[in-house]
Amino acid sequence: MSRQSERESGRDVGPRVVRRHGALAELVGESSAIGSLRAAIRAVAATRSTVLLTGETGTGKGLVARLLHRLSGAHPFVHVDCAALPRTLVESELFGHERGAFTGAHERRIGRFESVGSGTLFLDEVSETDAGLQAKLLRALQDRRFERVGGNRSLPLRARVLAASNRDLHSEIGAGRFRADLYYRLQVVELHLPPLRERAGDLPLLFFAALGRLYANRPRPTVEPSLLDRLEAHPWPGNVRELFNLVERLSVVRPEGPWRSADVDALLRNRPRVAGGDDDGRASRARFEARERVVLSRVLERHRWNVSATARALGIGRGALRGRMARLGLGPGSSREP
Description:
The chain is of the alpha/beta class.
């Protein structure tokens, strides 16, 4: 597709895209990375497997979690932002508590693990939890049972659990901030969301999708052709969220247009950089796998390279573990270093 036709096609992201992608039409893009992500979502949605969503801030992990839930047919969907909850209350928020469990616990409280029933529980920014809560999350996921704070009655965990993090969890494990066994328990299926800079050709589609949502019931402003060139030259450290916010800001400062590249320059000037969104403009999958190799080899060594024992500790099947070992080139005597 030529550059011009590609941009023109971005103007029609309505009925044509819905017909092509159905329930996944909200996941805007025609790049190979987004095509692979759609295929993975369709394959995983109907299962009850735990899914770990990784990717930089603003790549759409919350959207993918909701799409997985919607396609599963389960109800309800409960979103827990682990970074927003006070650390003193997060355990009670998730597991609930009994009356008198702590100062201020005047009555029994039902937590999210219990209230979600057989629906979907989405643990957003799970890397922000502390070591104590990580241990309790691991136990709940491993045993499929939990207890309210201050209680001794074991309750079943019936929900399907999704988790997300914008941090590099292998680095967090290496720094001692995240448990390796919890990582592997969450990573039954991992879906990695690509940054916007790696989605060649998707930016015009996303731009016109955002424009269409904001101007659904009013005439759209005219857009100077060079504006898209300016957008494509930006590194987008905040990814799709940053792009959508920029379009909304344009709709506020110039509601009737025309929109010019100079307007984008004015809005982007002196914008703060987003931590974790640069890395020289590339997400290094090779480094990610190298760190996975180090982490997995440590767990294997701890269990003297016994595949059955290691698989049990990680909460995965022996076949899945052997597959990872083969992919990472791990075996007794292999070096832990990448």
